[in-house]
């Protein structure tokens, strides 16, 4: 086999089919299931899901906290939302491209 | 037999334009929304069929050259469709069909349906025209057609402040960009005396033009000066169109503000045109000439670096988004950055990876936006926290969002894994191993953003009762795209070769020139 | 592949060195961890099942697998979660086929990156467990896991890629070939830097202290497995143990060079592999037993510095070796 794509394909088929077989095996070999309230540290389930459940949007908190300064730089210094700020970056880049190509392509080929 | 078939395929774009401009006339007769839905779907189906047949024709018979109105190049406008543009055209046609079918549910009986479809078909005609054209000035026209339609579509919800603001910002930036491209065309015409792409390529490499219609025997201007300025300006313009940092700012505003099917078309397909034009300009037209080579190299290198920066910055911005459509819009910036880097490599592997990734990204991103749009419409909010438990009300849309997200992260066996693998291979082969690290880190950041989405949709409990239902046709469009994402991955060993040859044709400068020359000589009765 | 190869492939995935072998090795790894941690805390550790409690982890897992599943009325479908965890288990089993101990060895260019992407299924299994629970503690656990994953996954990928690349070239970067390649002085920088990064990755992914932040039993009522029980918890334990064993084995074979200075043909070489494996696990456990848990942002920052940045340094070392020296 010389192609990593084929290897990935074989592996992922193995993983999905094998995972399905394993899951069915584990699930089926049970004597039966019953419906119960889960043990949530002694509190009822509804209390948790209705009130204390953390907002789904805060999943990234740990990473955002670690990358705080970088994230803040990207959010407030680059993506300001002000057209003038964007223009300054875009025009500087256009000028740089022009200068680079002129210097490298024409003046100093 | 072949001749009329070629003519038929070549006439796709004008036919689309005509179909688009027929709609305003139709509004004089009837205001029935359903008619426009069916009409637009039929036209999109025609375009899908025609683009796929064009791709098949190009694969079987080589590059398709179509003279507009029978005018030969470089006097008239020609369409020159090689495998690269034909593949992207086929992707555009097929994905646009899904988007149009989906629009029927999304818009319903909204008052502006007729105008919506006028602009949507105009957008499709512009995109296909930009991909197929063999004329640098016609590219400008088609870019304008496409962009003006896009500005209008972004402002479609014209009573919301956000849409109007986004459309204003977008149109200011976009109009400046196309105007600067016009300036670049001036430099090209001044230095080469022609605007035909094959002719420019010929003049760049041999200093003489096409055998017929060659009014200027030699290049009138300073080739290296004019070409350098033109290249720098047009690369900047195409970077704006494909939203590579630092010219991406319009995208995260404009795409979320547009109606979701339009966001899908803009994010999945619109940006491809810019990427295509970058590849066409730095490889097919201006590649491989000693005077301009230094410019091409410095531009490629800066594009390579900026693509990496783009991926990192956009994926960081993705982490903190609470608006599902904005999150996906930043993901587009990330992926176009990666594709632009791969294009900048200028190797066959790079172009193969870019073509493959453009395709998987187009299908995956269109699916993600359509699914997100369905979720937004069903749950009544764009904010992630309001989408909790969405899978209960929109199972297919949620499944589509997960499949698309996993494909964009690169989980095997979805299409994105194989195109990312191709990207890794291309960067490793070209010696740019730092890009391997960039892809991995940006994918990890994107993972965080997508897991937020998956977590909300699947693992949270629904808060509100959903009022809207999704119709079968919209579900069918999403299912078709889900199948597309899976097929692009699972059938990898079979479809691999098409991406390789399509990517290679972008680098095949001689093939591009000779196809035009052959068409020209046979037009005047010469042998082939 | 012909039918014999297919059978051999299935055997390798299911039995050796795949599912059965790796899960047994995983329980052994867990036993070492528990025993050493217990001794460090002046306890006995497992003693009841098997000699010196060697089979205790197996007994624990079997007990869970044979238990009844408590069906959570408001949480995510436990069968789907079970499927996700099972795909993780199978991903680890399949990935062992890249190792030289496997009877059938798959090897392609860039299989280092394929390995990392396939292993992502095991990460998904970890995440699904916490997210699927209706309690906020599970969600917080998985969020912390996710924050760590965002640093750890690229670190793992880059370090495995650069170690492989230092042996087989940047464009090939085959981890299966790198494991059996001859080691020389020029590979040492990438090997050491990548090894350090990979060691931290192993500790973070197998939730050892100070990186067991997602489990965080003390600050909160529990972590990712706060209210998971029965077969699902059993499968999670298998997944967790296999992940630890797999990464320790990868460290043994890739970074510590397997039977080096002996060879795979030498029976003593296999003993040496075993000794190195135990040494890796013991070192990690000793570090784990002597440190306290970090807060999430401290943990991510630490992993970012000493795992991600070090792995990028390893990439630099490998690239320097490849493009400049050779």
Number of domains of chain C: 1
Shape of chain C: globular
Order of helices and strands of chain A: HEHHHH
Poorly predicted parts of chain A: none
Q: Most extensive chain contact?
A: A-C, 49 and 66 residues
Secondary structure: helix percent of chain A: 55-70%
Estimated structural class of chain A? mainly alpha
Number of strands of chain A: 1
End-to-end Cα distance of chain A, whole Å, is: 45 Å
Number of strands of chain C: 1
Q: Give the % helix of chain C.
A: 55-70%
Approximate strand percentage of chain A? under 5%
Distance between the termini of chain C: 36 Å
Can you characterise this structure?
Chain A has 109 residues and is mainly α. In chain A, 69% of the residues lie in helices and 2% in strands. Chain A has helices spanning 4-28, 45-52, 61-66, 68-78, 83-107, and one strand at residues 34-35. The two termini of chain A are 45 Å apart. The mean pLDDT of chain B is 87. Chain B has helices at 2-10, 12-29, 33-61, 83-107, 113-132, 136-154, 161-192, 197-206, 223-242, 250-257, 260-285, 290-319, 324-345, 348-379, 395-409, 415-429, 434-459, 472-490, 492-507, 509-523; strands at residues 64-67, 78-81. Chain B has a two-stranded antiparallel ribbon. Chain C has 326 residues and is mainly α. Chain C has one domain. Chain C contains 11 helices and 1 strand. Chain C is globular. The model of chain C has no long low-confidence stretch (mean pLDDT 87). Chains in contact: A-B, A-C, B-C. Chains B and C meet through α16 and α17 of B and α5, α6 and α11 of C.
């Amino acid at each position: 086999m010389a192609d990593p794509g084929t290897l990935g394909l074989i592996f992922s088929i193995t993983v999905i089919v094998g995972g399905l077989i394993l899951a069915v095996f584990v699930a089926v070999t049970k004597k039966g299931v019953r419906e119960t309230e889960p043990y949530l540290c002694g509190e009822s389930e509804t209390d948790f899901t209705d009130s204390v459940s953390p907002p789904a949007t805060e999943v990234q908190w740990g990473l955002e906290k670690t990358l705080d300064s970088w994230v803040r730089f990207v959010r407030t210094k680059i993506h300001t939302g002000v057209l003038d700020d964007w223009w300054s970056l875009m025009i500087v880049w256009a000028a740089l491209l022009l200068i680079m190509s002129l210097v490298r392509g024409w003046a100093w080929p | 037999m072949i001749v009329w078939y070629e003519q038929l395929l070549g006439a796709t774009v004008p036919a689309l334009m005509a179909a688009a401009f027929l709609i305003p006339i139709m509004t004089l007769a009837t205001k029935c929304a359903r008619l426009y839905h069916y009409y637009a779907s039929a036209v999109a189906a025609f375009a899908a069929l025609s683009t796929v047949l064009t791709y098949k024709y190009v694969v079987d018979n080589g590059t398709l050259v179509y003279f507009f109105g029978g005018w030969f190049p470089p006097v008239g406008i020609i369409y020159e469709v090689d495998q690269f543009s034909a593949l992207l055209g086929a992707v555009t046609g097929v994905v646009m069909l899904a988007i149009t079918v989906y629009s029927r549910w999304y818009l319903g009986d909204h008052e502006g349906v007729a105008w919506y479809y006028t602009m949507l078909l105009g957008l499709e005609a512009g995109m296909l025209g930009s991909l197929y054209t063999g004329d640098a000035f016609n590219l400008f026209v088609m870019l304008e057609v496409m962009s003006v339609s896009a500005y209008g579509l972004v402002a479609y919800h014209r009573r919301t402040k956000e849409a109007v603001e986004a459309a204003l910002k977008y149109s200011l930036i976009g109009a400046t960009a196309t105007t600067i491209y016009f300036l670049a065309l001036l430099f090209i015409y001044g230095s080469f005396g022609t605007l035909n792409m094959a002719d420019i390529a010929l003049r760049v490499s041999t200093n003489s033009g096409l055998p017929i219609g060659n009014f200027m025997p030699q290049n009138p201007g300073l080739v290296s000066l004019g070409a350098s300025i033109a290249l720098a300006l047009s690369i900047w313009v195409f970077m704006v169109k494909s939203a590579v940092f630092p010219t991406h700012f319009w995208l995260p505003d404009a795409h979320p503000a547009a109606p979701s099917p339009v966001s899908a078309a803009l994010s999945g397909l619109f940006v491809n045109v810019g990427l295509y034009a970058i590849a066409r300009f730095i490889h097919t037209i201006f590649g491989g000439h000693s005077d301009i080579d230094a410019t091409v190299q410095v531009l490629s290198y800066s594009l390579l670096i900026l693509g990496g920066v783009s991926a990192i910055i956009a994926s960081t911005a993705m982490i903190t988004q609470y608006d599902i459509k904005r999150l996906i819009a930043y993901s587009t910036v990330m992926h176009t950055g990666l594709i632009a880097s791969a294009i900048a490599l200028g190797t066959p592997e790079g172009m193969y990876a870019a073509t493959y990734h453009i395709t998987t990204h187009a299908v995956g991103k269109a699916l993600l936006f359509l699914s997100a749009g369905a979720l937004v419409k069903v749950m009544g909010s764009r904010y992630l926290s309001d989408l909790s438990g969405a899978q209960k009300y929109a199972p297919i849309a949620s499944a589509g969002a997960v499949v698309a997200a996993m494909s964009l992260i690169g989980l095997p066996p979805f299409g994105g894994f194989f195109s990312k693998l191709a990207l890794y291979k291309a960067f490793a082969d070209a010696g740019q191993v730092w890009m391997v690290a960039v892809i991995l880190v940006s994918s990890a950041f994107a993972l965080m953003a997508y897991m937020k989405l998956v977590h909300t949709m699947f693992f949270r409990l629904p808060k509100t009762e959903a009022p809207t239902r999704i119709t079968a046709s919209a579900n069918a469009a999403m299912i078709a795209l889900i199948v597309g994402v899976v097929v692009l991955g699972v059938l990898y060993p079979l479809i691999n070769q098409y991406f390789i040859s399509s990517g290679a044709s972008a680098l095949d400068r001689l093939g591009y020139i000779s196809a035009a020359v052959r068409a020209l000589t046979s037009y005047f009765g010469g042998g082939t | 592949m012909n039918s014999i190869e297919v059978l051999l492939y299935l055997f390798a995935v299911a039995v050796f060195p795949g599912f059965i072998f790796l899960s047994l090795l995983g329980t052994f790894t867990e036993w070492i961890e528990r025993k050493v941690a217990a001794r460090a805390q002046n306890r006995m550790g497992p003693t009841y099942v098997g000699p010196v409690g060697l089979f205790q982890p197996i007994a624990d897992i079997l007990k869970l697998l044979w238990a009844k599943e408590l069906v959570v009325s408001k949480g995510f479908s436990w069968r789907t979660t079970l499927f996700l965890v099972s795909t993780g288990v199978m991903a680890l089993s399949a990935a062992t086929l890249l190792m030289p101990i496997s009877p059938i060895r798959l090897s392609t260019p860039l299989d280092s990156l394929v390995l990392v992407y396939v292993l992502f299924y095991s990460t998904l299994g970890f995440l699904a467990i916490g997210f699927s629970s209706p309690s906020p503690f599970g969600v917080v656990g998985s969020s912390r896991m996710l924050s760590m994953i965002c640093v750890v996954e690229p670190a793992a990928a880059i370090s495995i890629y650069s170690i492989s690349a230092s042996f087989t070239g940047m464009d090939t970067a085959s981890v299966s070939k790198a494991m059996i390649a001859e080691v020389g002085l020029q590979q040492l920088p990438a090997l050491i830097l990548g090894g350090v990064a990979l060691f931290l990755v192993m500790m973070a992914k197998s939730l050892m202290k100070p990186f067991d932040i997602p489990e965080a039993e003390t600050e909160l009522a529990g972590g990712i497995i706060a209210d998971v029980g029965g077969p699902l918890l059993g499968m999670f334990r298998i997944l967790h143990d296999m992940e630890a064993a797999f990464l320790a084995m990868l460290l043994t074979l890739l970074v510590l060079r397997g039977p080096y200075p002996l060879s795979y043909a030498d029976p003593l070489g296999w003993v040496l592999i075993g000794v190195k494996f135990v040494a890796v696990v013991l070192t990690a456990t000793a570090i784990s037993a002597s440190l306290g848990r970090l807060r999430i942002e401290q943990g991510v920052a630490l992993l970012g510095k000493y795992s991600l940045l070090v792995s990028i340094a390893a990439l630099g070392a490998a690239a320097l070796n490849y493009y400049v020296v050779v």
